[in-house]
Amino acid sequence: MDTIHTTNAVEFIDWRLKAKEKLEKENVDFKGSREAQAVREYILKTLIRFADQEPRFAEVICNTTRTLSECCAAVVHNAGRVLSDLDAYRRAVQFYFPHAEVEFMMNVKLTGSAPTKEEMQSPAKIKPEEASSTPSASKPAAKSEPKRALKKRQLDKKRDPKAKKVKKLAPKQEEDFMQLSLWG
Question: Cβ neighbours of residue 27 under 8 Å, at least 6 residues apart?
Fold first, then answer.
């Protein structure tokens, strides 16, 4: 009598890759208003980044009938004339996860030594009446700190024995917690 051996194979689904492929296809077929077109590239890149970071996020993107065009339309809907990038990403996440609570945290790294008295007392290089949202050909761009001065400040910080080292704390992870980063 012949013995039949069966194995139960578990199919591995790469949700991250499938989500990327789905979003890129939807990008090719994109239809939307001028406003939706304006946010499309940023929303696409961010959704792909989020899907790459979190398989559950990727799986939802794959299994939804909603499209990137509809996502971008939802992002700009009732946005008015100005929409911050953080609000755009919040709306994009909530398009796929309607009950998600989206929080943002900004980490600011103070590098180098504190500004000198001279630096603190120097007047602003750009005055409010000169500020413009678009660069002007007639006004030179503000120069960044010279490389030599930046390197000196970085060396000063390394030599400063009083400089405190900040310990990074890992966030507590709850059962249904997804941590997604805009910066990967």
Answer: 40, 44, 68
